[in-house]
Structures are given as structure tokens and as C-alpha cells.
Specification:
This protein has about 250 residues and is an alpha+beta fold. The chain has eight helices and eleven strands. The chain has two domains: about 120 residues; about 80 residues, Nucleotide cyclase, GGDEF domain (Alpha-Beta Plaits, 2-Layer Sandwich), CATH 3.30.70. The chain has a four-stranded mixed β-sheet with strand order 6-9-11-10. Strands 1-2-3 form a three-stranded antiparallel β-sheet, covered by helices on one side.
């Protein structure tokens, strides 16, 4: 391996791969530079998860002397025999590397290896793409740095795929959704982790403190808001006052 070429590749990537105008071009140039540095690559594939109602992710496949092929996979792929009997299933589900010499003992482990061996491939490796921190997050420390709010409501909604083409989303709509979204913002204003509407509190009684009525944007009448009995609000001078009672009630009576 040519250490100098590898160093230049590293610096190029750190600098943002500025000579590559698109992700496929960046992948192609990266692979080409690795080959030039002495790494005998035959094929390289990258799979990236996406937040999409129909597509689980997109892949890019590079082969020497060819253009990068960009494709996508739907959620049915995860249940297909081809995927379940491939090394990628292990990488995807367990987050660990799969490595095999195709003329060695592991060369018969997956049907894919037979096809690769016929094409002259001698070595195979598949591994998860790790973040710079190794995918390990200081969950406890992170929780100490931020708060979240949850709004609970009961009502009728419409849900399904809305939109078309590349702008298709699986989502929910309706007045109940709008109210829940407004109450979520109210949770922040009231310095509460969980708030609930009257409808939800009526459906699940005996666990709520009446926080009063508040005007809700987009609704003609104020909404009575409830908080958990065992949750004390975080002290904050900017906390709004309830229009009906002017205070936070911390008992169920």
C-alpha cells in the first residue's frame, strides 16, 4: 500500500471531497484513489438508510471502470430470502463485520459467495458504517442536557400516504392531530414533560392535575390542560398562568 496516496485520500475526504460534485462521483473517486494506492478492489457497495414511507434506503455500487450504479430498496427487501441469506442481514441486524476468504472454510457460508467466486473475487468484507464516536452515545449525560415534551389526546384522525412521487409521506391529519401538536408546545411553556387534553384525561382518570384552560392557536375555544400528578414543573419565571384558575393545581381533588 502506498502510504502517501492514502494520506492524500484522507486529507481529500476531510476537506469535503470538493472535486466530487455528487455522492456517486465522490464514491467513485474514493474507490479509484484506493485502487491507485494499492488496494485491489473489485466492487464496493454502500447502503444508506432513509426516512421514507416506502424506501428503506438507497445503495451505490462501484465497479472498476464503470459508472456508479444508484438504486433503492423497499421494506419488503428485509424479508426476502436473498437478504435473509446474505451477510448483509448480519451487518444490518447485529451491527458487526462479516469477513471471509472465498476459497477458505467460510467461502460456502452464503449463496452470494458462490456467485462472487465465479467472477474471480477472492476476499469479501461487509461492515457497518460507524459514526466518528463508534455509534456509542453517553445516553445518561445526554438526557441531563435536554428535556422533551409529550402531548396526549384522543380523537378521530385520517392517516395514510399523502403526496406523490418523491414527496410521498405516511402521515396523520385532522383536528385531533392539530390539537395534539399545539398541546406539545404547551408542555414546553408549562415546563412539563407530559400534558394531556380533557378528552384524554377523561379516558384515563385519576392520574392528572388540572393545570387550567389556555387559548389554543387555530381553535375557537380554550382547552383545559392536565399534567401528571407526580410531576413537579420546573421553576420558570416565564411560565404562563391558567386563564381559569391562575395557578397550577397539584392535587386530584
Amino acid at each position: 500500500m502506498n502510504a502517501s496516496r492514502l494520506q492524500k485520500l484522507t486529507e481529500w475526504l476531510i476537506d469535503g471531497a470538493r472535486t466530487a460534485p455528487s455522492p456517486p462521483r465522490m464514491m467513485a473517486e474514493t474507490c479509484e484513489r484506493l485502487v491507485a494506492a494499492g488496494l485491489p478492489l473489485w466492487r464496493v457497495g454502500i447502503f444508506i438508510r432513509t426516512l421514507h414511507p416506502d424506501i428503506i434506503g438507497r445503495n451505490m455500487i462501484w465497479r472498476s471502470g464503470e459508472e456508479v450504479v444508484v438504486g433503492s430498496a423497499n421494506y419488503d427487501t428485509l424479508h426476502s430470502p436473498e437478504f435473509l441469506n446474505s451477510p448483509l442481514a448480519i451487518v444490518f441486524r447485529e451491527g458487526r463485520e462479516v469477513r471471509a476468504l472465498l476459497d477458505g472454510p467460510d467461502g460456502k457460508r452464503f449463496p452470494l459467495f458462490d456467485d462472487l467466486r465465479k467472477e474471480g473475487v477472492t476476499d469479501y468484507i461487509a461492515l457497518p458504517l460507524a459514526h466518528v464516536d463508534g455509534l456509542q452515545y453517553p445516553i445518561g449525560d445526554t438526557v441531563e442536557r435536554f428535556r422533551f415534551g409529550v402531548a396526549l389526546h384522543v380523537g378521530r384522525i385520517l392517516y395514510g400516504n399523502i403526496g406523490g412521487g418523491d414527496r410521498l409521506d405516511f402521515t396523520c391529519i385532522g383536528p385531533a392531530i392539530n390539537l395534539a401538536a399545539r398541546l406539545e408546545k404547551m408542555a414546553s411553556r408549562l415546563r412539563r414533560t407530559v400534558v394531556a387534553s380533557r378528552a384524554f384525561a377523561d379516558a384515563c382518570p385519576d392520574a392528572w392535575a388540572d393545570l387550567g384552560e389556555f387559548p389554543i392557536a387555530g381553535f375557537s375555544r380554550p382547552e383545559r390542560v392536565y399534567g401528571l400528578l407526580d410531576e413537579m414543573p420546573v421553576a420558570d419565571a416565564s411560565q404562563p398562568q391558567a386563564h381559569s384558575s391562575g395557578s397550577v393545581v397539584n392535587s386530584s381533588g
